[in-house]
Each structure stands twice: as structure tokens, then as C-alpha cells.
């Protein structure tokens, strides 16, 4: 249960969190009194800071008179005090222009979104490719290679392309293969593996159609089991943070591909909105991080994840507004690409 803070305590905690995020230096009562003009005496502010420390929201390093937020203090700030307005219009226009200049290729959108997140939030960014909960077929093609050897090409709605050689019992012309492709596309386009099995599982198929269906279902199962590629940018943004100055190696280990894949696997994101994870238990290397993440795409159909990571002292309001805006933009692109 969250401790009930007075309005003055809430104000002081908010000032300290924002000032510490900006300066990375402990915040003293003198700074609060002189810089913020709230009409309180230094003694009053010191008493409130001591009360906040006793409640676990603040701490002070060594013998410093200044205070800095604890993980509990950051969490209270994010949940109760933070304002995350819309991303400024200039930033929105810049990002829209960058996407407008990009080609209509999903991979380029993914790389661009990772770069935009890292630059705008000044953090590490992770972007996963959109993936359907169960893949849907877009198109198949059968190509005669020689004699009875046929190449099956399968294109999924999420852009994956799979191919496999099929050996049929008798040589088949390209004309016949094209007719088979056209018939199957007319019947199966837009369907999942389960739907294809239900529709054609007991159908009276020709020999080449039966072979094609068997290998098609195998390739679609492979596509469903594929782990989406992760695009990462901005590691140098985190390495320059003063709290990580003397432990760059531990931070790099915390940001290596296996550690980040584990982080993504553990995220339990809501279908809509942005989730903020503040520090928590330090990992084995002691590199605590703040995480801001959101889904993008079409809920329950095809989705990816946008994430930014930084030190616990990250500007969460900026990160939240950036992730939210890019998620909205990427959702629109994905819906247009998949026809939702």
C-alpha cells in the first residue's frame, strides 16, 4: 500500500526527482528554497526531506546534505506525479518526415523506429519485428526446376518468405504448376494453419496439391515458431550516464543480446498504453535500469514491442511520450501493411 503523502511532501519529492534526473547531483534543501520560490523555510524543507527519507522515498549518499530518489521514490513519481504530455510538435514533424522519406519496407521502418527512439529519448532502444500470434498465408508459388523437382515459395502476411524443394511423382509442366498455385491461393490466402487444415484436411486433392499442402503446413509451422528479429540502437547513450562511468563492462553485459532477449521475454505488456518499469532488483552485474515499453500493431493479430532502456535516473516523461508516439505511428503503418 502506498504511503499517504501530504501535498507539500509530494511537491518536494517531485522537485527532487526532476532535479536529480537533470543534474545527477544530490538535491539540497537550499536548492529547493532558493531555486523554486515556494515560500517555505529551509528548516521546513529539511524536515519534510527527512520524513520522505524515513518513508523510503529518498536517500542521501555518504554525509551529503542533499537527497536523491530511491527506487520507491521513482515509482511514486512515475505513478502519481509525472506528467507525460504529447511529444512536442517539432519532434512529431521530424519523426513523420523521417518515416515519409523511408521506403515502404518493413525492415527499414523497424531500423528507423529504433534509431528515432534512441535519439529522441536519449536511451537504448529495442524494437521487435511485428509477429502474428498465428501466421496467415498471403501467397504461394510453385516453380518447375527440372523434371519432377518443384520449388515451393510461401509468403506470409507478416512478410516472412519460406521456400522448399518438392519432388513429385511425375514431371509436371510450369503451366500445370501455375494452375495449382492459382487454385490454392484462391482457396487459402488469408488463412492460418488451423484454418487450412480444417478446410482442406479431408478434401479430394490431386497428387501435386497434396504434396504442396503437406509442405505448406510444415513451412507455416516453422514461420509460427520463428523468433522475431530485435533491432537495437543507442548503447552509447547509456554508457555516458555518470552513474555508469566506472562500470561500463557491467552495463555492456546487461545490454548484450541474450540479456535483452530475456528482458523482452519477461515483459508483460498491456494491449494498449505504455508501461514503465523502474529499476527493481539489480541484475547480477548491478546495472539497474529504467524501462519504458509499449506494444504496437493490431492487438491479438500482429504485434511488436517498442522499448527504451536507460539508467534509473532517466527522464521518464520524455521516454513515455516518445514511445507512445512512435507506437501510434508504427501501429498505423502495420495496419496499412496488413490491411486491418
Topology:
Layout: H1 7-23, H2 29-36, H3 42-54, E1 58-59, E2 68-69, H4 71-81, H5 89-101, H6 106-121, E3 124-128, E4 131-132, E5 137-146, E6 149-156, E7 161-167, H7 174-188, H8 193-200, H9 207-225, E8 230-233, H10 235-239, H11 248-254, H12 257-266, E9 274-278, E10 289-298, E11 302-311, H13 316-338
Antiparallel strand pairs: 1-2, 3-8, 3-11, 4-11, 5-6, 6-7, 9-10, 10-11
Helix pairs in contact: 1-3, 1-4, 2-3, 5-6, 6-13
Word description of this protein:
The protein is α+β, with helices and mostly antiparallel strands and 340 residues long. Helices cover 49% and strands 19% of the residues. It is built from 13 helices and eleven strands. The strands form three sheets. Strands 3, 4, 8, 9, 10 and 11 form a six-stranded antiparallel β-sheet that branches. The protein has a three-stranded antiparallel β-sheet with strand order 5-6-7. The chain has a two-stranded antiparallel ribbon with strand order 1-2. β5 (137-146) and β6 form a beta hairpin. It is elongated, with a radius of gyration of 27 Å. 33% of the residues are buried. Residues 281-286 have low confidence and may be disordered.
